[in-house]
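Input structure tokens:
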């Protein structure tokens, strides 16, 4: 059968084709990028309060689609997963965000080498190797960043770059040469494990950048999860930035408790501060996001030792004394530690400007606290939580805090009836798996039967932290939407491969709740970018982040919204940039609508926080991302620092 077009339809169609052909033959209009404003990135989160926000505005929603690779630096520092004798060594992970001071970038590699680059060309200026023994660290989690201190004088080591290492050293380097500063500590470094209780090298180290407050360098530590009740204590220390002299120590023991063990070492088992510390330079305050007291899934032995666990703590910067603290999870048994940097902004509340701390959590709840008092700016309700199913040696908190102004980012129960799968077979398997566990809602205690942990111990929100526009009070944060399980195993039945929790009656087995095909048992999206107006509590938009293209074989590329680790960055021009740990891409979104505007291909996944800068009025704005994969996902390890910028001339189409 033939189909014919009438002359009334055919004429405009033909004229349209001719017009398109003629326009294609015409030269494109070429414009130079707009001038933009100079903008730096002097601290890990962009500011000492971690807003992930930049005033840079040369790259806009209208031209972001023209971004191209400007330069690419490789350190050579990465490790493939391997088995070494009786132990396994995980692949390296790259979670670093460079900082920019004047015209230089500074960053650390997964091997703790510190490298300086020319900010406009990516040329390597110097590199320093602290010679960490990588074989002592089965999981090369990261070096998330370095910090900058300046004395406002000229000369050697008057500008210092500080880095913490996996083997617990704090090192000061001259920013111009990369040489250690001889007047700091012992020839440029301090052993922060001094005075700690006995431990293995992998149990204690520094993974996050130190905080700088005046002439003080302040650092917490990573303490390996779930190993034993007498793990090294979670000490926070402040050192003089020039001499390295110890100025104060904070050991988070409960009020009236003793800060030291009987042998004089710092008290074991206290909660640590592994994530990023914020400072308020005007008020002289230091804000700590605390972990949960070891081990994670049993607390019958704690007897109040977790008083400061899973909290935000404000310390007085001059003395280390507590100004206030606010606990986000009481008697935490779910590894719901405070993972994200406390974000410092001023918000309009009841027509008044209020200095606040915004704290996102693994529970997907957002707490907004007054920066000077620690009191909630809006009501927080103590609500009853599940009390059944715990082992007999455990005790439970009867209530947990729930913010009421900003709704939780993860809503609803995780039920067997809502199980999801690609086929009837794996959907039914998911339903049976969920039905076989204790599942009484959020804060269901770990049990011998196995309990649903929803949100999972990866979040909700994790160390990627939010981006907040200080002008509008709009927050954008990545949210994992997965469930995990926690099952306690009686000590006599524990195996070597389980998480030991030595010193308690139980080891623990944790895992994702997945189908036989390895997919989550809940419907996608499993990971989203979410925008919230903090002043009104309104969710503005929520969009999936990432696709399964780099994780699954064809034809299973269509699923949108991956689980993983991600960290958004926001610009004044109205853009959000983010990668994710399971996809080889960096994306740009409209801050107003959440619409995806650009995607840049990467050699492996980028789960680090992107940063941006423009160092001179006539220069370019660069967006820089570290792409190095993550040991928890399927992306291969790497060592890539990649800068994107607009071309010298942008075609106007």
């Amino acid at each position: 059968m033939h189909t014919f077009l009438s002359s009334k339809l055919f004429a405009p169609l033909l004229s349209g084709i001719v017009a398109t052909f003629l326009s294609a033959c015409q030269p494109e209009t070429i414009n130079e990028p707009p001038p933009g404003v100079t903008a730096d990135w002097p601290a890990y989160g962009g500011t000492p309060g971690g807003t992930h926000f930049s005033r840079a505005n040369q790259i806009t929603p209208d031209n972001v689609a023209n971004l191209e690779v400007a330069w690419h630096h490789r350190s050579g520092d990465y490790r493939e997963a391997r088995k070494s004798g009786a132990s396994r060594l995980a692949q390296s992970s790259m979670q670093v965000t460079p900082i920019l001071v004047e015209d230089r970038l500074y960053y650390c590699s997964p091997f703790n080498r510190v490298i300086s680059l020319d900010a406009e060309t990516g040329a390597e200026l110097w590199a320093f190797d602290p010679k960490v023994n990588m074989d002592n660290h089965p999981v090369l989690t990261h070096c998330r960043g370095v910090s900058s201190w300046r004395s406002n004088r000229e000369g050697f080591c008057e500008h210092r770059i500080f880095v913490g290492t996996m083997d617990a050293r704090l090192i000061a380097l001259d920013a111009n040469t990369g040489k250690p500063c001889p007047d700091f500590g012992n020839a440029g470094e301090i052993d922060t494990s001094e005075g700690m209780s006995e431990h293995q090298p992998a149990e204690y180290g520094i993974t996050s950048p130190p905080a700088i407050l005046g002439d003080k360098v302040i650092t917490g530590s990573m303490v390996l999860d779930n190993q034993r009740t007498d793990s090294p204590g979670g000490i926070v220390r402040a050192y003089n930035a020039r001499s390295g002299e110890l100025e104060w120590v904070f050991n988070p023991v409960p009020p009236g408790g003793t800060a030291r063990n009987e042998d004089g070492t710092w008290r074991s088992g206290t909660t640590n501060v592994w994530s990023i510390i914020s400072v308020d330079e005007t008020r002289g305050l230091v804000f700590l996001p605390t972990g949960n007291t070891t081990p994670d899934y049993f607390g019958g032995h704690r007897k109040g030792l977790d008083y400061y666990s899973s909290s935000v703590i404000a310390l007085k910067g001059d003395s280390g004394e507590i100004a206030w603290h606010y606990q986000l999870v009481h008697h935490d048994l779910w590894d719901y530690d405070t993972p994200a940097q406390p974000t410092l902004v001023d918000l309009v509340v009841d027509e008044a400007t209020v200095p606040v701390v915004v704290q996102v959590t693994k529970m997907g709840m957002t707490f907004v606290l007054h920066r000077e008092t620690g009191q909630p700016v809006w009501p927080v309700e103590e609500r009853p939580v599940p009390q059944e199913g715990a082992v007999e040696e455990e005790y439970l908190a009867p209530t947990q805090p729930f913010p009421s102004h900003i709704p939780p980012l993860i809503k609803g129960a995780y039920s067997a009836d809502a199980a999801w799968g690609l086929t009837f077979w794996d959907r039914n398997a998911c339903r049976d798996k969920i039905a076989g566990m204790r599942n009484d809602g959020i804060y269901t205690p770990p049990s011998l039967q196995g309990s649903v942990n929803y949100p999972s111990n990866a979040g909700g929100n994790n160390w990627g932290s939010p981006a907040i526009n200080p002008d509008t009070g709009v927050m954008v944060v990545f949210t994992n939407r997965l469930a995990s399980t926690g099952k306690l195993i009686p000590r006599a039945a524990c195996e070597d491969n389980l998480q030991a929790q030595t010193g308690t009656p139980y080891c623990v087995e944790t895992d994702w709740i997945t189908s036989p095909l390895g997919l989550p048992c809940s419907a996608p999206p499993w990971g989203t970018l979410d925008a919230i107006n903090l002043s009104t509590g309104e969710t503005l938009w929520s969009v999936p982040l990432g696709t399964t293209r780099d994780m699954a074989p064809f034809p299973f590329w269509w699923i949108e919204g991956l689980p993983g680790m991600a960290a958004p960055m926001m610009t004044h021009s109205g853009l959000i940039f983010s990668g994710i740990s399971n996809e080889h891409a960096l994306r740009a979104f409209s801050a107003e609508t959440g619409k995806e505007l650009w995607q840049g291909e990467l050699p492996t996944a980028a789960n680090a926080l992107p940063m941006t800068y423009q160092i001179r009025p006539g220069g370019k704005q660069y967006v820089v991302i570290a792409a190095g994969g993550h040991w928890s996902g399927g992306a291969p390890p790497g060592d890539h620092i990649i800068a994107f910028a607009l071309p010298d001339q942008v075609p106007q189409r």
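Residues 7-25 form the longest helix (19 residues). Residues 1-27 have pLDDT under 50 and may be disordered.
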